[in-house]
Amino acid sequence: MASIAFKRVSKAFDKHEVIKDLDLTIEDGKFTVLVGPSGCGKTTLLRMIAGLDPQTSGSVLIGGKDVSRIAPGKRGVAMVFQNYAIYPTMSVRENIEFGLVNNKVRKAEREELVEGISKAVGLYEYLERKPSTLSGGQRQRVALARAMVKKPSVFLMDEPLSNLDAKLRVQMRIELIELHKKLGATFVYVTHDQVEAMSMADTIVLMNKGVIQQEAPPDEMYRRPSNRFTAQFIGTPPMNVGELGESGSLFGFRPESAVLSEAQGDEPFSVRGVIATREMLGSETIYQVRSGSGNYMVKCSEDLFAAGQEVYVGVPAAKLHFFGEDERRIDEKESSYGKCMEALRGRSHG
Amino acid sequence: MTKAWRYTGLTLGYLLKTAILIVFVFPFLWMLSTSLQTYRETLSYPPTLVPAMPQWINFAEAMSAGPFLTYFKNSAIVTLSIIAIQLLVMIPAAYAFAKYKFPGKNILFSLVLLAFMIPGQVTFIPVYLMMADWGIAKTLLPQIIPFMSNAFGIFLLRQYFMQIPEEIVEAARLDNAGEFKIMRKIMVPMSMPALATIALFSFVSHWNDYFWPLIMTDAEAIRPLTLGIAMLRETEGISNWHIIMAGNVVLVIPILLVYLFCSKQIVKAFVYSGIK
């Protein structure tokens, strides 16, 4: 097994610098998800690990060893592509076997491995079939089996679930978590879908414009976002963020942290507004409240209000987040935290 | 639209197709028919399409008019060597142009396209002199060497390779496959239709090639079938059309056989490039 380290890595495509002086360590045996909007550099990082698009400068280490000069096929990594990249002219068996043949694994051993893996992913009956006769989910499994059979120390996955329908995606998510537990290899998973990131990751690495915004386990990333971008990228609907007056600081709260009531409470944040839209999703209802200071999304477990109704949006002190002028999180321990809280309370309760 | 109109349309369609078919098939049938007639029958008026008595002896006569076995062997060696060498040159070249980034790639590819546009007539004298200089004029090599590379084939195959998703090549690299293995196991099997098309075009043009061997050969031992058949005409000062046509039938049979085997792949190649 192996950890992965980026040391002052930069990557440019035709003089256009996508990633600059990036440092990152991906822990051994962990399920790490690289997430961010499209064009943020997450796939570029993944391809650097694979060696498909080597870095322009800096070094990439796998298991403590600099792999900058090692060919993709010799790095001990396997990759699952978004479009699966199955070899269409080969049977399922040949697809799974191809890497083993190239690594000169003996025939008897090869057969044993292929049969074992194909049984594990439910493809045993399809071994002699051509990929074109398989469904999307089955092709996905061929791609997974092809990666697994090489027993790599690092698994790289580039949005492997995005071509599946919603139901199958949820199922595959669970299977991938189980697979990770079983194999104990280092998983690096790229997605733009924050739900996938939250549900599968041990550690999320959130990127934007080639810069790492935050690197944390899902719960920490959700509860203590380190800046405004993280706060608004993770979570649906995103965190409500508003300005805090002249200082340029910002306050924020999650849609589910707010309480709607007909009378004003004594929370530090409390504003009056009108319900503009109501989305009833079954187990929860999402309201959009329009107020003098802005629009706020509020998620409630109960469906008590109707569109057009006048309500108060209240947020308790513990659920409030503050961000400085530079959009970085202001921690509870910092002196400016109290000032922000005062400013917000003053604004809400005049 | 009424039923009557639709039937008229259909009928018209079939009539036109039949007309086109006749235009293409008639010369072929005429050749077949003439090859089975007697000398007198070929000169009779009105001409007959069905020979009174098939003269299979014409074939034997055509074949005994010269060293046809040698001609046939020469044609086969030259054509097959050209196709084999072309494929060996073309596949790696097209792969590099389609899937690699390297300095000067565009200039090199333009050169390939340029080669494809230069008419053969411009180069035949220098090439002839060169081959004569090398002292290989008495071998089959001068008929092979100038055609070792096929610019049109490189162009067509590159376009085809470019349609193959990058990820498939990358997946193979991650599977520790070398570049030649990627070509052999992935690119070539995925491009069979294009390769079959190129090979067939190449086969037809070199099997039927008359001009270059005419210039380049001066001995029976290295002449191809096309020259041998052309020479049938000159025997005894009169035109033995029945013998010439028998020779032509022999010339055409290999092409028909190859086409029979390739046609499915060729149709696929054109359908693919049509969709994409």
Describe this structure in words.
- The complex is a heterodimer of chains A (350) and B (276).
- Chain A has a six-stranded mixed β-sheet, sandwiched between helices.
- Chain A folds into two domains: 220 residues, P-loop containing nucleotide triphosphate hydrolases (Rossmann fold, 3-Layer(aba) Sandwich), CATH 3.40.50.300; 100 residues, Beta Barrel (OB fold (Dihydrolipoamide Acetyltransferase, E2P)), CATH 2.40.50.140.
- Helices cover 28% and strands 31% of the residues of chain A.
- The mean pLDDT of chain A is 91.
- Chain B is built from 14 helices and no strands.
- The longest helix of chain B is centred in the last third of the chain and has 35 residues.
- The chains are: A alpha+beta (350), B mainly alpha (276).
- At the A-B interface, β6 and α2 of A face α9 and α10 of B.
- Chain B: It is a multi-pass membrane protein.
Order of helices and strands of chain B: HHHHHHHHHHHHHH
Number of helices of chain B: 14
Mean pLDDT of chain B: 87
* 3D shape of chain A: elongated
Strand order of the largest sheet of chain A: 6-7-8-3-9-10
Estimated radius of gyration of chain A: 24 Å
Kindly report the average pLDDT value of chain A. 91
The radius of gyration over CA of chain B amounts to: 24 Å
**Second CATH tier, the architecture of one domain in chain B:** Orthogonal Bundle
| Low-pLDDT residue spans of chain A | none
CATH class of one domain in chain B: Mainly Alpha
